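So, read this over?
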Amino acid sequence: MSEPTPPVRGTEPGAAGGRRGQLERSGLRTGWTTGACATAAATAAWQALLTGEFPDPVTVTLPQGRTPSFALTRELLEPGRAMAAVTKDAGDDPDVTHGAVIRVEVRHGLPGSGVVFRGGPGVGRVTLPGLPLAVGEPAINPMPRQMITENLARVSAQRGASCDVVVEISVEEGAELARHTWNPRIGIVDGISILGTTGVVVPYSCSAWIDSIRRGVDVARAAGLQHLAGCTGSTSERVATSLFGLPELALLDMGDFAGAVLKYVSRHPVARLSLVGGFAKLSKLANGHLDLHSHRTRIDTTHLADIAASGGADEALRDQVRASATAMGALQLCLEQGIPLGDLVAARARQEAIAVLKGAPVTVDVVCIDRAGTVVGLSPGA
């Protein structure tokens, strides 16, 4: 069973022009994060302010020794300030911010002030504790700040100038783009985040989605919430809200990444974790799979037949379950003969979840639903 596809999260892919992302063995082209794009724009603008000329393309140094070059989309040099912009290229990674224009304005700062970051239009602002930035700060993450600072320091050293500079980052239409990311839920308002730890995005790695799950746990814990729900989609979120009365901040849009939720909560525990999702997806968790995506793990009707047997299914029913075309078809067959396959799958999924939690002090329960949001299985404790 599948739920409505969640919005694409801010995976923040690539740079415009210049050297393209290297090809993975899969043949997919990598991209560059928003942090890398902002670094390129800031470096070009700072060099122009110091020398009177924009480098185009501009080459920057990223973690792990990468030195990509970025073409500039816009440039502006006026007395006391310079602005450069880079248009994001997602490479072969699908991303809501593909084509977004990252604009950076720089101007001289007070002597001894170092690099000071400001958020312009389209860059979010932190309003809740729990993130790696203080409340009130622009949502420019620590690693992009470090990348920008290091590249500006390099340009300053080359020109014999002090690196006292105010850096203001803006994203055109960033506030609208942010509506399709996790930002509103975790208390980042008015725009997207400037992200990236290596500067590189591997297509379909979903690393930013997983990072957003972790930030969701962090913000919820900082708010004092001790009951969270990992949900496979919007229908599951509505069910979790109805069953448990949880606030939105407690809802984790885990999508297919049950393992990411469980592993992070094992290290950052809460009192209770409810996993709520489609019966078919959670049957995969019951079979030991931590990635529930239909392209990466399959429904195992033989395993469903074994679970049904544990609830008293006879050989004829087990054969029917094994031959079922869908997990929901297997569920219906069992219900017709009084075998609570939904509850059995939820209980088995709970056992697998407990194993992943590795003794963390977390009470876990599982709720299975059908496509319409009807509860079809409950584990002990749910």
Notes: The chain is about 35% helix and 20% strand. Confidence is low (pLDDT under 50) at residues 1-26.
